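Re: that chain you flagged

S.,

Sorry for the slow reply, it's been a week of failed gels. I finally had a moment to sit down with the sequence you sent. For the record, here it is as I used it:
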Amino acid sequence: MLLKTPPALGSMLAAALLMGLAGCSQAQSPNATAATAAKAPAAATGNYPAVLKGIQKHGFEVVGEFDAPGGLRGFAGVVGGQQPAAAYVTPDGKHVVVGSLFDENGEDVGAAPLEKLAAKPMSEKMWKKLDASTWVRDGRADAPRVVYTFSDANCPYCHRFWEAARPWVDGGKVQLRHIMVGVIREDSPAKAAAILTASNPSAALLENEHRFDKGGIKPVAALSADIANKLNDNQELMIEMGFQGTPGILFKDDKGMLQRRSGMPQGQDMDLVMGKR
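Prediction finished late last night. Pasting the structure tokens below so you have them in one place:
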């Protein structure tokens, strides 16, 4: 067996929260106390070795146990609420290693249980949160693929992503759902409000994109309490999903697992995000 250890847990968490280079702005939590990483599935109860408490302070939350070879005990967990990871406790119960355990065939013995116990439940929970958020549809309602994107009306990379997505959206293959936030400029919340309060938000979104080089949509004079709360909720959700800038893109891969991209997808990665044309 071969055990491949990852970087320190703190580094794993930091990497999960880094903003992509092809993005803009850094969102701060709307509330002074706020915001947190997406919560992992509720930790399962069980007779777990005391040594696991030592890695909890590094952000590792146990969500379940699975069979492991060589006298080891395998545990599925989530680091910082964002990154699924496996932990293996040695037979003496005094040591634990976080990483990938490979058999003689080069197969990761923890991959399947980690997906079942941690990654899949977390993906489903996060997708439901996205569904319940305040978003604006771009594309056909019956498009077979849905892609969420946290968007700021003033973000040039959001605009570039919108332009690059046209072949899929206009072809009826993808429905973009823009979760509007206002984090880049002083008038970003007012522009987001202009889109959200329009009689046809989807048309207002397109107006902003078509007129982007000329300043975009005209901002509203004042935000209502309702819209301010919705933008606040969207911004908190963006941070909860692990993004610090826009666009923050989420989609499901071929296995139905939630995937993220921070910033504008580069090269062939656009095909992975959007699927077949």
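What I noticed first: The chain has a mean pLDDT of 86.

Talk soon,
D.
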